[in-house]
Amino acid sequence: MSKHHKQHELIVSALYGEADEDALRELERVLADDEDLAREYRELQETLGVVTEAKLAEDPGHGFWRSIWPEFQRRERAEAAGRSKPVKAPVVWNWRPALQIMIVAAMLVIGIFIGRIISEQGTDDSAERYEAAETPVTLPYQREIDESKRDYFFEVAGSSLERSSNLINNFMELEPQEWNANSELISRSRQAGSDILSEISLLRESFNDPRFIEIEPIFNELELFVGEIAGIEGGEDDIWFEIEALQRGIQDRRLIDRLNQLRLRVVSLRDAKRDNPMMWIER
Amino acid sequence: MAPTVAELVERARNDEIEAFQLLTERYKRKIYYTALSVVGNHHDAEDLLQDTLLQALKSIGRLRNPEGFGSWVLRIAFNRSIDLRRRRSKEATPEIDKNGTEVFDLMENPGAEGNPERTLASGQISTLVCRTMDDLPESQRAAFAMKHIAQLSIREIASATNSSEATVKTNIYRAVQKMRKVLLPLVKKGSGVADEQAS
């Protein structure tokens, strides 16, 4: 940890009255040796004085606090009633719709087969198709997620996580000072971050199934960090400070390890779905 | 003697709804103000408070450490609030409200009417602080607002946002620095005008 970081942490603890006696003594010593830092500390105190005067939030009043529990009970009852809706009657076997479905499915298979033959006869772009992307991040996933096609969803989730992992890995390998000097890198990472955010937002809508509860927290964190990376702007002299703080946050949370674990989990869910397509049928 | 949080959690897990009510009583303010810190309006904060409580009741059986109920429930509130804020910011159309325009005028020409009271009116300072907060990167804004609006300790913020105390301090430090750049020139100019008028 750099000397400045340590000093800034001390200052914040002291400003908010959360520093212990040892920390306060250390801060006093540091401020006595550094006139600029002492002036900065006084100005920060003054700033907090102004912020404290400003009324940032109003108390909603006794009526509100008293209504919380009755309102909670009302919502809980409404939700419980929703949960206990009668289960749909089991489908009675009927050969006619089954035959219709089989005919439609057969037509679809034939259609796809013919489509493939036609596209293969067209331009041979296979060499271009498999060309490595210029950047670690490919174009965003634009289509709406279809609940009935969860296998496709897992493909997309897997690729989105992979690209997030690439973005964050690249970000972690950078020296903060190097970042500020490279405007192309900033703009590419901002674009990649913003694409990934759009994807995550679409993917998130498919995360209502309780089986995905383990995935949600890491998506929240991912959004937070990717959002920060997408929000980095070049040109500020002290941008390195924000980058360093972000890198430390990513490290503290072991975000990369957890991202990789999640990718493995998504891949295994996708493969399980391939082996057993019935597993996603609502029960 | 009042029951401990761990005892209340154990009782709530055994479907004792009164125990969950007592937990709600203890944490409702922190949950509400945490949500308010992130979303910035009463209506959404109220909804988020209720959502958080419903989620907590559903998942309390999976809470590994009953003593950590407070951190856990604030983390639920924070995550849900961030999620809602993101959705709202995508829906929102940019517009400058009346207060915002006034604040920008104030920033460009503090004390333009020679009236320090106008420059330092507390309502305008609040608006200015809020707008400066909105311009902060998300992690700084959340940490700063949770400190000032929800009045959480640095440890509680770290736990709710699932980050380290060092990260929270760094975020708050950066936020206060930016506040200093915006607010101090105004305060100093305002008091300068006041001094001139007094003399």
Number of helices of chain B: 10
Q: Uncertain spans of chain B, ≥5 residues at pLDDT below 50?
A: 93-120
First-last Cα distance of chain A: 53 Å
Rough shape of chain B? Answer: elongated
Most extensive interface between two protein chains, with residue counts: A-B, 53 and 54 residues
Structural summary, described in words:
The complex is a heterodimer of chains A (283) and B (199). Chain A has 283 residues and is an all-alpha fold. Among the domains of chain A are: 3-52, no CATH class; 147-280. Chain A has helices spanning 3-15, 21-33, 35-53, 62-83, 95-121, 126-129, 150-173, 176-181, 183-204, 216-230, 239-252, 255-275. In chain A, helix 7 packs antiparallel against helix 12 (255-275) and helix 9 packs antiparallel against helix 10. Residues 122-145 and 279-283 of chain A have low confidence and may be disordered. Chain B folds into two domains: 5-91, Orthogonal Bundle (Rna Polymerase Sigma Factor, Chain: A); 98-198, Orthogonal Bundle (Arc Repressor Mutant, subunit A), CATH 1.10.10.10. Chain B is elongated. At the A-B interface, helix 1, helix 3, helix 4, helix 9 and helix 10 of A face helix 2, helix 3, helix 4, helix 7 and helix 8 of B.
Q: Quick summary of this structure?
A:
Helix content of chain A is 71%, strand content 0%. By secondary structure, chain A is an all-alpha fold.
Q: Which terms would index this structure?
A:
heterodimer, A: 283 residues, mainly alpha, 0% strand, B: mainly alpha, Rna Polymerase Sigma Factor, Chain: A, Arc Repressor Mutant, subunit A, 2 domains, 10 helices, 77% helix
